[in-house]
Specification:
Chain lengths: 213, 191
């Protein structure tokens, strides 16, 4: 089970390894707040949907399983969306349309189909947590690079109260060297490409090590 | 009329779904290996988005608003899209074997293409009327198809290029996508 959990981070990282859920990763990695907020929303939906789908896996007819999964996921996403709208209005505006597009995020449907429909609820929950955190991890890494290069500083505010800044880091001497390109779509694609290449190298290295054993 | 054209042009070139809104990136990377399948996918997406947008438009204003259950929007829309895609697939399979052979394999993929759900939701949130909805539903996937086709042409050549080992495959494709986004951002001023 520990391996299930660990897999989601590097070896089978949903974003860098399997190239799932790329749309939201590219669009929402502009700031640390967006990245963590979105990552946790997806993790929550993923855990709940994995558990529910795993519970009903024996009574779902095979032909209609995809519509059944989609209805479950859409219900969970609607709940999360209303929750975020009510308690974290700042986050709600900055995530925008991507919050409701979690429904069509391939990670969730992909894990439902590949894992939850074949395994018990507990294992599915762990898988959901691992994959969700793997996604959050990927999003956070990209957002740190992008936010720093675009602003030469990183701020993290309390999502429940936007005026309260929890954490902020910046180098004033570098202020004139801001690269605003990195807050636009070009920067997203390039940063993502570099991370994907980096993870390909790490994975290759790990495989070699395993073979040597 | 002028306004509609401006809107369509902006949706195709300036606010391109893939390059500036990051929607539909998965099929953008997945089915861009050759230009023929890129065109097939593009056509299938245009058809599905147009149909699904019209259905969801009427469903929202005639049923959801009248019954005051707007919060069911997401669930209704995704169900309509999934059902519509399934229906189109069955229809094409029955009546046109050759078209099914060309488009068939892309159809199931479209359900999870976020552009479809995005356009359906966008029509409602922007408060578009019927004509604007129809324009949006053609222009947005047209932009998707254009970028997909251009990208697939580049990728066909990229296969024979000498790329560094770790960048092979998707990473170099993403770098190309980034450069394309840069090129498209140069068009911002025209509307």
């Amino acid at each position: 089970m520990w391996n299930n959990f660990k897999n989601g981070f590097i070896k089978e990282n949903p974003v860098f390894g399997l190239y799932l859920g790329m749309c939201s990763t590219l669009a929402l990695s502009t700031s640390l707040n967006n990245a963590i907020g979105m990552g946790l929303c997806v993790t929550l939906v993923l855990i709940c949907s994995n558990v529910l789908i795993s519970l009903i896996r024996k009574i779902t007819p095979d032909e209609v399983r995809i519509p059944v999964y989609i209805v479950i996921i859409a219900t969970l996403v609607s709940i999360v969306e209303m929750f975020v709208h009510a308690f974290m209005p700042e986050l709600y505006t900055s995530l925008g349309v991507f919050l409701s597009l979690i429904v069509v995020n391939c990670i969730i449907l992909g894990r439902a189909e590949a894992f939850a429909s074949k395994n018990g609820p507990l294992a599915s929950a762990v898988d959901g947590l691992g994959m969700g955190l793997g996604y959050t991890f990927a999003l956070t890494m990209i957002s740190l690079v992008r936010e720093f290069l675009a602003n030469m500083s990183i701020t993290f505010y309390n999502p429940f109260n936007a005026e309260q800044i929890l954490f902020s880091f910046g180098i004033e001497a570098l202020e004139p060297f801001k690269i605003s390109l990195f807050s636009s779509s070009v920067g997203a694609f390039l940063t993502f490409a570099c991370f994907a290449a980096l993870f390909a190298v790490i994975r290759k290295h790990m495989n070699k090590k395993q073979e040597a054993k | 009329m002028g306004e509609i054209l401006t809107m369509a042009l902006a949706a195709v070139l300036i606010n391109n779904v893939v390059l500036s809104k990051f929607l539909g990136v998965c099929p953008f990377l997945g089915v861009s290996k050759n230009s023929k399948s890129a065109v097939g996918m593009g056509l299938a997406v245009i058809f599905v988005i147009f149909g699904a947008s019209l259905i969801t438009y009427f469903l929202y204003y005639q049923v959801l608003v009248k019954m005051h259950i707007e919060y069911m929007q997401l669930i209704t829309f995704i169900l309509v899209i999934a059902a519509f895609v399934q229906f189109v697939e069955m229809f094409i399979k029955k009546y046109s074997a050759s078209l099914y052979k060309n488009l068939g394999i892309y159809l199931p993929l479209i359900t999870t293409n976020c552009v479809v759900l995005y356009v359906a939701q966008d029509n409602i949130t922007q408060g578009y009327n019927l004509i604007e909805t129809m324009t949006n539903a053609i222009a947005v996937p047209l932009g998707f198809m254009l970028v997909l086709y251009l990208f697939s042409c580049i990728r066909e050549r990229l296969d024979s290029a000498d790329t560094p080992e770790s960048f092979k495959g998707n990473p170099i494709a993403l770098v190309v996508a980034g450069l394309m986004a840069l090129a498209f951002s140069g068009l911002t001023g025209i509307v």
